[in-house]
Fold:
Amino acid sequence: MSKDIGVDSAAIFPDEAYAPAKRAAIRMGVIGYGYWGPNIVRNFHSQEGSQVVAVCDRRPKELGRVRHSYPGMVVTSEYRELLAATDIDAVAVVTPVWTHYELAKAALENGKHVFVEKPFTCTSAQAEELIELAERRKLKIMVDHTFLFTGAVRRIHELINHGTLGKLYYYDSTRVNLGLLQHDVNVVWDLAPHDLSIMNYLIQEKPQAVVATGEQHLNGLVDIAFLTIYYPNNVIGHVNVNWLSPVKVRTTLIGGEKKMLVWNDLEADEKIKIYDKGVAINSGESRYQTLVSYRTGDMWAPRVEQVEALQIEAAYFVDCILNDKTPFNDGIAGLNVVRMLEAADQSLRQKGKIVQL
Ligand SMILES: NC(=O)c1ccc[n+]([C@@H]2O[C@H](COP(=O)([O-])OP(=O)(O)OC[C@H]3O[C@@H](n4cnc5c(N)ncnc54)[C@H](O)[C@@H]3O)[C@@H](O)[C@H]2O)c1
Structure:
């Protein structure tokens, strides 16, 4: 039998109520059980070190789904009840972006570590305030940039760190599909956070400027956009995001001086292909003596681990709390992405004006 949280209950399990088989180190509450929330609940609940003890959603239908999948789990439609529970250590905020700030702030004020969906907040000022609050309260913030935990991105990160690609030239991603049109954010805030977080993680430099162009056609929100991001040392990033594409494409090209790679995330096997291709210029004394040589060597597909990204990320969140580590996808990483999104919006409004970060 599921049990709603009583307003007077400080602890989620005050008496003989729902007693789970395990008592994990980190007890989680999850706010938001729409499209993405069930993945968060499933992954935190199946971890060795964590268990989900309560789920909150405003919509009774979603709470019905929780009851069906997890008979006996505590449910509530009022997030303040969940935050008041003294036996919850951390809260996942899996609601629309315009609610992240209010919910994450309330969670931190109630002494909970927070796992917040991407994009972290609607504005960089909100993100800065949450980071400061978490620091003051000695609490962790992790922003769910899920792609950073995929086998593909972890492998590409490894290849770059080992110098396999050589000096980086560019990151060029196409992330397009038909829908799902959002009603609260444009296509940039919906799809680009994935690439912006991946770029920042792989390039390991602070982006310097953003240029964005795009257009709106249907519901008053930009539904197709092209972003260019300038990084130090001539590294350039480009992202094509589109809700009006007839086909789904998830393909990224990453070019380096020594090797280039293609990452097709829709491939079941061989998601990453590394090409031993490149161009070298040997300049002579005059421009007429410039020699261009093209290298076209082998192609190979490295092994990519197939474990669900959220499973690894959930374990990492627990580890960061238990061992007092700062996650690499912390509030600051989330803030950096929000700054780039704000700059993209500003550039979009000015038809592609360059915006310094
Ligand atoms: N990391 C990823 O790959 C990924 C994928 C999809 C969505 N997301 C993110 O997850 C978040 C949620 O997206 P979604 O697609 O699941 O949205 P959704 O609209 O399907 O679900 C959100 C749920 O939150 C509930 N909710 C809203 N405000 C609430 C409140 N104050 N208290 C309690 N419940 C509340 C709604 O009733 C709804 O059921 C967004 O920030 C989105 O960007 C991330």
About this structure: The pocket of nicotinamide-adenine-dinucleotide is lined by residues 31-37, 56-59, 62, 79, 94-97, 99, 117-118, 144, 146 (CB under 6 Å). Residues 331-349 form the longest helix (19 residues). Residues 118 and 144 are 5 Å apart (CA to CA). The chain has a mean pLDDT of 92.
